[in-house]
Amino acid sequence: MALVKLQSENFRNLSPAPVSFSPSINLLYGANGSGKTSVLEAIGYLGLGRSFRVSRHQAVVSHGQHKLTVFGGLDQGMSGAEQKPSSGELNHRVGISRDVTAKETTLRVDGEAVRNLSSLARHLPVSVIDPGVFDIVAGGPGKRRQFLDWAVFHVEPSFASVWQQCQRVTSQRNQILRNGRIDDALMKVWDSQYTELAERLTQARNETFRLFTKAFHSLLGEIDAPWVDGLKLDYYVGWDASQSLVEVLRSHREQEQKMGHTLYGPNRADIRLRYQGRPVAETFSRGQQKTLVILMKIAQGMVLSDLGKQVTFLLDDINAELDVVHRAMLAQKLHELRCQVFVTSIEAPRPDELWRHTMPEYRLFHVEHGKLTEEQEPG
Ligand SMILES: Nc1ncnc2c1ncn2[C@@H]1O[C@H](COP(=O)(O)OP(=O)(O)OP(=O)(O)O)[C@@H](O)[C@H]1O
């Protein structure tokens, strides 16, 4: 699916006027503070249910307001095995409202209220590449789990519900571990639920990680960068995988009790990135780390694309982070994968720098005071 219509109310400084986008490439430019990132953030809200910039919904609601709404019109875009071009008809209408006073989120798909965010999010796989994305390599395991789980969610339909159940059971288990005296019979019940859910989560992650590494290595074969030899990606399941989780929990009960929370399981999973045996975060230059993240993001796009799903990529301010060669590599690949792409820049964009071989069709927008105006030619 591709997002071809967007309308928001009380979303940062954005104008409430509806905007039509291309199911392929959209270039947005405008001065600092004009609202470019806010447009991407509003699109991200529909695909992620939250802002990719801030954790508090409050920050996103226009000053002086208490409720924001974002509506999106989705079109089949360039997805599907046949890669048919857009018909111009809307396939789905999705909406999300957040009342920050009542702390309530309302979700709608095709006019019907839905309870789960996953019902909305699975229609619009949104992948963000902004200055914060580089934490996937430089940051902690949580960022890499989030990265992996985004793809697992779109590959395995039952993942979201298993993940939620596992979070609930983990928190119950933590409560018991925090209590001074543990009722062994009760702990056994929670452990059996926990390990069953953990195994299901791990299986889903394993399968997606397998697809991801396959795509990633095929991508490495295409690029000319000697430093990728010796690069190794491993999925750490969250415990010593040579033992069953049940055994690990049994042999570490005292340690968990002392710490007062669960120490082994899917909440400790990680993608371990190593270069010649050492963590890439310690070995790679900043530029190499950035390239690696971009390649990982493209590989995720390849996985979904192979399943006939179109990813909407939100590229925010990449000029500040990537040199022209890497920007062009990214743009070219995303176009080949038939992804929908939104690219922001301060200066009028140079599509000829991004797509050097074949120029895709694109739509160009100037952003000013939260309002988008379509232009025919750059400048
Ligand atoms: N909750 C809010 N209500 C109203 N306006 C807001 C709110 N939050 C931020 N703004 C304003 O919205 C504008 C848009 O910010 P945004 O980050 O989208 O701009 P940008 O075009 O991406 O800028 P830059 O190029 O500097 O990154 C800014 O002027 C900001 O001060």
TrEMBL record:
Q: What is this protein called?
A: DNA replication and repair protein RecF
PANTHER family for the chain: DNA REPLICATION AND REPAIR PROTEIN RECF (PTHR32182)
Name the residues that bind ATP.
G30, A31, N32, G33, S34, G35, K36, T37
Q: Where is the RecF/RecN/SMC N-terminal domain?
A: 3-348
- UniProt KW keywords: ATP-binding, Cytoplasm, DNA damage, DNA repair, DNA replication, DNA-binding, Nucleotide-binding, SOS response
Q: Name one Pfam family in it.
A: SMC_N
**Cellular component GO terms, alphabetically?**
cytoplasm
| Annotated family | Belongs to the RecF family.
Query: InterPro entries, from UniProt?
Result: DNA-binding_RecF, DNA-binding_RecF_CS, P-loop_NTPase, RecF/RecN/SMC_N, RecF_2
**Which GO molecular function terms does the record list?**
ATP binding; single-stranded DNA binding
Q: Which GO terms describe its biological process?
A: DNA replication; DNA synthesis involved in DNA repair; double-strand break repair; SOS response
Q: Which PROSITE patterns match?
A: RECF_1
